[in-house]
Amino acid sequence: MDDVLLRQALEFGKPYTGKGEVASYIPELSKADGRELGICVRTIEGEEFHCGYWQRRFTIQSISKVINLSMALEHHGFDAVFHKTKMEPSGASFNSMSRISDNEDIPFNPLINSGAIAIVELLLPLGLDYMLSAVRDLCGDKYITIDEEVFQSEWSHSARNRSLAYLLQSKGLMDGNVEDTLRLYTQLCSLSVTAESLSNLGQLLANGGVQPETGRRLLKEEVVRTTLTMMLTCGMYDGSGEFAVRVGLPSKSGVGGGILSVVPGEMGIGVYGPSLDRKGNSVAGQKVLEYISRTEKLHILDRYSRNSLSAPQN
Ligand code: GLN
Question: What pLDDT was estimated at residue 92?
Answer without folding.
Answer: 85
